[in-house]
Amino acid sequence: MSISAHNAEDRIDQIIILTERLTDMIAAETRAFEANRPQDVAATVGETAKLANIYRMESARLKQDPALLHKADLKQRVALVRATEAFDAVLARHGRVLESAKSITEGLVQAIAKEVASTRVKAAGYTDLGRATPVNGTAITLNKRA
User: Fold this and answer.
1) Residue 136, by phi and psi: left (phi above 0), alpha (psi -120 to 50) or beta?
2) Most exposed of 23, 43, 79, 95 (fewest Cβ within 10 Å)?
């Protein structure tokens, strides 16, 4: 899906609206993550992904054909630049919040894995009859890249 525009000015207006809407949605997601309420993001994740895809395609179109941007008047170009700067700032903040959440989650998983591993029965070697001592056979896998 992409923007259906009548002319360059219409296309730029729609891209500005798209950018502002996406900025608002990602800012709301960021606030939800900061408030430790990631479940609040579930309702809008599909729409955010759809708008992000349209934004990506329109950005690529403008990059491929810069004349579209040059046909717009100065007021529109300034509005687009401001909307894009706000979007970039929100994306940077969103990225920091997600990176922080990822680090916390990875730390929790590693702490749980270490605790589970420390409670296991350790192999003590062999008995005086040459038999191996019983060992807890449960396994745990920890992917440090999570």
Assistant:
1) beta
2) 43
Residue 59 tokens, joined: 């950005």
CB 68 within 8 A of CB 8: yes
Q: What is the pLDDT along the chain (146 residues), one digit of tens a residue?
A: 667 767 778 888 999 999 999 999 999 999 999 998 888 999 999 999 999 999 999 999 889 988 888 888 899 999 999 999 999 999 999 999 988 888 888 888 888 888 887 776 665 566 667 676 655 555 556 666 65
Q: Is the dihedral of CA 86, 92, 95, 99 positive or negative?
A: negative
Phi then psi dihedrals of residue 109, to 5 deg: -60, -45
CB 22, CB 51: distance < 8 Å: yes
